[in-house]
Amino acid sequence: MITWTRARTASTPPYVRQRLPIAGRSYTVEFVLTADQLVGPGFVTDFGDLAPVKAVIDSTLDHRVLNEVLPVVPTSENLAVWFAGWFVEHVEPDLPGRLAAVRVSETASSWAEFQVAER
Fold first, then answer.
1. What are the pLDDT tens digits along the chain (119 aa)?
2. What is the C-alpha separation between 118 and 100, in angstroms, rounded?
3. 103 in helix, strand or coil?
4. If residue 30 lies in a helix (H) or strand (E), which one and from where to where?
5. What pTM was computed for the model?
6. Residues 4 and 62: beta-carbon distance below 8 Å
């Protein structure tokens, strides 16, 4: 799991003439990996192989206005889908395992989970 802090502007309804304030929030993202068999010494993948995930969060998302840096409205659901697509394209090709799901949490008791189709 990786935790970061973001800012986003709330969607402004058409009847509101002023821009809504920026809201800050902390998120946690969890990547669920699976494999047909483990690699030595008993891993699906070494956590070190996931360093690109932390790097993209630090360089692109952490303490940023997500509405300005992502191509989607930054709901937890959309973030889970975005992370899954990014992970499959940029990280998974170098892993012995594959991505099964992404879970994005705004609180300890609320999250959105996107399950990646088996490939």
1. 666 556 655 555 554 455 556 667 788 999 999 999 999 899 999 999 999 999 999 999 988 888 889 999 888 999 999 999 999 999 999 999 999 999 999 888 889 999 999 87
2. 7
3. strand
4. strand 22-34
5. 0.81
6. yes
**Long-range pairs for 52-61 at CB < 8 Å and ≥24 separation?**
52/90, 52/91, 53/2, 53/29, 53/87, 53/91, 54/2, 56/86, 56/90, 57/2, 57/4, 57/29, 58/4, 61/4, 61/6
Smallest CA-to-CA distance from 8 within 75, 103, 95, 90 is with 75
Q: What are phi and psi of 70, to 5 degrees?
A: -115, 150
Reference 1, options 57, 41, 44, 40; nearest CA is: 57
Element (H, E) at 7: strand 2-9
Please confirm whether the linkage preceding 41 is cis (ω < 30° from 0).
yes
**From CA 77, how far away is CA 105, in angstroms rounded?**
10
Q: In angstroms, rounded to a whole number, what is the distance separating the alpha carbons of residues 78 and 40?
A: 34
